[in-house]
Amino acid sequence: MDEYVLNNARPLSVCMDFDELKPDPQGMIPVVVQDAENSEVLMVAYMNREAFEQTVREGVMTYYSRSRQELWRKGDTSGHYQIVRELRIDCDNDTLLAKVEQIGAACHTGHRSCFYRKLTLPE
């Protein structure tokens, strides 16, 4: 892991464990990831129990890759880590909001956010 991340990430104190969340039938919970500085939505990913527990333990975002069927600590291959600044849960306990310090690009395309394309046409 990057030295900056090692020096700045901290284990998280949380008031709920994974058993209190409501994952989908595959054991996944969606995570909306937002820049802690400017509130920009960076990406959406999924966590299973193991990803949630590793994120809490390390303070660095870890997800479950549904396509590769494995844990994925954001930044291990790209160097674009996400240091957790805050985790929030929605009113139904079935979606997380992660406020992060984003290092580099969040999107695998190299864009800062995965939401760089407009779907609506100008009027």
What general form does the structure show? globular
Oligomer: single chain
CATH first level = Alpha Beta
Rg from Cα: 14 Å
CATH fold name: Ubiquitin-like (UB roll)
Specify the number of helices. Answer: 2
The biggest beta sheet is recorded as: 4 strands, mixed
Helix-strand string: HEEHEEEE
The number of strands is 6
Question: Termini, distance in Å?
Answer: 46 Å
Mean pLDDT: 97
Give the number of domains: 1
- Please estimate the helix content: 10-25%
* Low-pLDDT segments, ≥5 res: none
For the biggest β-sheet, the strand order reads: 2-1-6-5
Structural class: alpha+beta
CATH superfamily: Phosphoribosyl-AMP cyclohydrolase
Strand content: 25-35%
The CATH architecture category equals Roll
Describe the structure.
The protein is of the alpha+beta class. The protein has a single domain, classed as Ubiquitin-like (UB roll) (Roll). It is 13% helix and 30% strand. It has a four-stranded mixed sheet. It has a two-stranded antiparallel sheet with strand order 3-4. Strand 3 (62-65) and strand 4 form a beta hairpin.
